[in-house]
Queue: 4 jobs
Job 1
Amino acid sequence: MSGKYANVPFGYEPVQPSRKGTLIFYDSFENVTNEQLERAATIMNARAFKQLVLYPLHESTVKRMSRDAVQSFYKREDRLHEWRRDHASAPIRVEGLEGKRKKYTPIDTALRHIQAEYPSPLFLYMTLEMANQWASFDSFTDWIKELRLIIDGQSDEVHPRLEQYRHRWEWATE
């Protein structure tokens, strides 16, 4: 027990933090524009999230998920760090788990790491393509019950599982 005692008036209740939860932008960041990053930062501020976490995927993870060619991980990560430096006053973090692992990281492993590392409630921010890919995985139905999803982009072509769990996600609007 701490040796520091404090006297407080009767009925005192500590101030509740005004910011809660974490917004995680999960993507390869190969085709993500600065406007999309700005939109995510705007949503973080508008909804009073504690922080925005940018989660870039390793090349081997992207190849397994979509077979698309991407730049090296460190180049995409450097771009994100540069964008973050331009927004020094905002609570933005670039997650380095995939850079440390240097190999394929399943989305389940990434989400378990995020769940253990960052304060709840968790909101995943994804592009429409990434959300459709994630919805095609078997583990989607388990994870969508534990977190919320914000999708960047507008389209009528959403995966049937996304349509099934329509109450757990929304379109990104500023």
Job 2
Amino acid sequence: MLIFYVFLLGLIVGSFLNVCIYRIPRGASVSFPPSHCPNCKEPIKWYDNIPVFSYLLLRGRCRVCKIKISFIYPVIEIITGILYLLVYFKYGFTILTVKYIIFVSILIVLGMIDLQTYYLPEKLTFSLIFLGFALAFISDITILQSFLGAATYLFPFFMIYAYGESILHKSILGFGDLELVAGIGAFIGYRGYFELHLFFTISFVIGAIVSVILLIKKQKGRKDMIPFGPFLVLAAIIMILK
């Protein structure tokens, strides 16, 4: 029964994460005004705001103006629910589950915003860093490991960033990516060279595979930008669930 409640919590939080993903890049409040259709501005009734179920019942359209609602909304809700379950299966009924569902929730928002806008909001990346330090006091790592994690995870990516800026005179990584990886390091903590190398490898391998696929399908050109934040997010989630 607890498994059901964990999944349900993920669905509910996922619905709120959708609000964050949509509003934060637009500089809007995530709490006011209440949920409304972005097209006709009509407030969404509670029975039309039930995660996944309402989307299916309405067949993916606004009840009032009938505009199509992106399928991304229920997908994010389901993904959040599944990730909450995976975190629970990994860490059980412990404080670590609380820590890592907070971690996963912020990562989902950051990854989706970067995917859609090529932008990582500082208010979220810095929140990730500070929360990583704060939650170290009640988790499986020490505050020293948290600080070392932020520094050591950041270092190789900063070197890549500096190489692109000073040698190639173009951005290989954005500064937001550096803030994100520092936050990931603060949450995961430094646990040895192997763990650091594994995170680095996973993020770049996933990035390379996706980039090649996009190039082959001609959805991106060689000079087109591809956001790296989602690959960092995927690598971080793999690291805490492995």
Job 3
Amino acid sequence: MNEWFELAQEKDEKDTLAKYKEEFYLGEAVHYMDGNSLGLMSRPAEQSLLDVMEDWRQHGIDGWTRGDRPWFYMSEKLGEMMAHLVGAGAHEVLATNSTTMNIHQTVRTLYQPTDERYKIMVDDLNFPSDIYAVQSILDDYGYPDGMVKVPSAEGHTLSTDAIIDRMEEDVAMILLPSVLYRSGQVMEMKKLTEKAHEKGILIGFDLCHSIGSVPHSLKEWDVDFAMWCTYKHLNGGPGSVGGLYVHEKHHDLGVSLKGWFGNNKQTQFDMVHTFDQAHDISQYQVGTPHIFSMAPLLGSLTMFQEVGMTNIRMKSLELTDFMMNMIEAELEGHEVEIVTPRAHEHRGGHILIGHPKAAGINAALKSKGVIPDFRAPSYVRIAPVALYNSFEDVYHTVMILKEIMDERLYEQFDNQRGVIA
């Protein structure tokens, strides 16, 4: 028997999280390795959505305040459930809007430019939506040249020192990813925050690719703000509501995008035309919350509360260690490059591999029941997720990849990405 397979079985037997795999809908003969893009449906998430629909059936409009899951307070309830994932107080975390909307809301609220200090620092590797949002804010404020992009030396990772070196007196704010969406590099958030504050610069992080796979201590690190999606590692479902953190020291500012759900809940239904801003994170809401887009999180997040981020992170690192070791041993000579950093402190929950025929390899993997995703121009992302992937899943994924490379099966597919990659 293959020694890798024996090792995978041995690791699975010792895995204290193995039972959670039964809570997810995995499909037949499928090795799902795309949880960093869209997490799978779980039975608790399905049930909580059905429960909220039942509340609608039973209570009608009174579902806003009646039942076990009153809709009026659901955004705050989910914020409380997510607070331990980011290391913050419940009054500082909220489920609301989308990631991009939360960038607009937080940056527009906290950004206080002057003619001497007006630039916003981002990075050359960030997700495009973050860049679009920041540029539109700078345009609206009359500083179209105000974006500072920290470059990557080799196109995959960022240097902490290079970022710190560019923290000059003209920078008012910094927005960076916590984990780079391509390479999976974890940023040194604590150090970056300390250095930014020494220079009088506000700093925030996009946690989309770290929330639910990497622990955070945002309050302890004194991070000013953060936002994230909930449909990747948190398994909230396609288009599920975004998450938001704003340090309590900023709660006295007037939010930029005002709407009736950012109003003090005690006076919200007075319906006066003077905005009575809520005194906690609730103020960052805008319009009526999307209840059915939040409901699956009520179930999904219960698993994170049970397991704890320390255990999730430990298994995640073991899974990616195992996968990287197998790839290096079994795919030697096939021009497969592991881009993701090896050091645990610099690695998130997914692996990026490079090859000139990456789009064809991605298609070939899918044809054989492995679900990864492709990133242009020549990379495949693979994410073994702690709650529903086993070490045996990793073993089969790498052995299928080896077969594809050995037999050049990727040549049967066009080396072009689909409309959605």
Job 4
Amino acid sequence: MARLNSLNSYVFFEAVARRKSVTRAAEELLVSPSAVSQQVKLLEQQLGIKLFRREGRSSSLTLEGEQLFKASSAAIRMLKDAQRHLGKQHEARRLNLRVTPSFGVRWLGPRLADFVQSQPTWDLRVDAAPDPTDFDREIMDFDIRYGTAAWEGFECQPILSDQVLPLCAPAMRDDLRARFGTDPAAMLGGARLIDSARALCQWDFWLHRNGLSVESNTKSILLDRSSLALQMACDGAGVVLESLAVATGEVARGDLVPLTPTLPVVEFPAYWVVCPARHMKRRAVASFLTWISEQADLHKITTSSIMEQYDLSVDVLQSPADELGGQGAGTT
């Protein structure tokens, strides 16, 4: 089998033949004219044929040169097309997303291994940050934001609902029941109320919606992350008003329990995929949306089981943006 000459020689030859000038070919290839001439001469020596017919300062292709130019042009074009195609494929398999911190750590994070295993050739970048993406300046496919979809100018697709209820450690629930019976107002009045500062549904809204007036004998606790609020409740510091979306693990393990089944769980769409409409057409985004929808369905099965276990009813908010007052801080 004949040994293939250096591909560089063919690239240099093709550029000279196409640009009809050693100087212009050198400018295109970012090398010196002498380097181009040397490569063309080397190729002529290796092939044992003349590729150019030189007449004074001008030159033209020989018959053999014409044949090699057609073949080398076609080959280089195929290589460039393949390079562009592979580049687009690689870009399509890179997914960049931003997610609110607590949801990212507590809900999305434990599930991401499943996504990575289902897409082994993809690159994945996850940015758990409170600030929304500036899509005009940042390289990001989409955000997973917490709120009520009041983000003008963006495509907003709901992926998961909040199911908010009072939760506490089992020992605290038993103690409150022993002291106050099953009266929820009395039970809450005898405990510290833990609030997540970034949550859409907070104690004042929840108490008003359930027609409860609570005069607590102790100070409340206000924290800026759901993870901190849940940990305080697990440690017996008080009763937290939180979502099953971020508290599923604690409730499933029995570290936290519903304070009382007599009042309904407040439910509303709270977690959204947000991005410019054009991003929805990206293959990576469409694949992730299909996957996260499946994960959300599995989550619903888990939360339905929890609600059935504790005999909890549901109070669905019909107009969350109006009732809760805007889009929320978006950082839970």
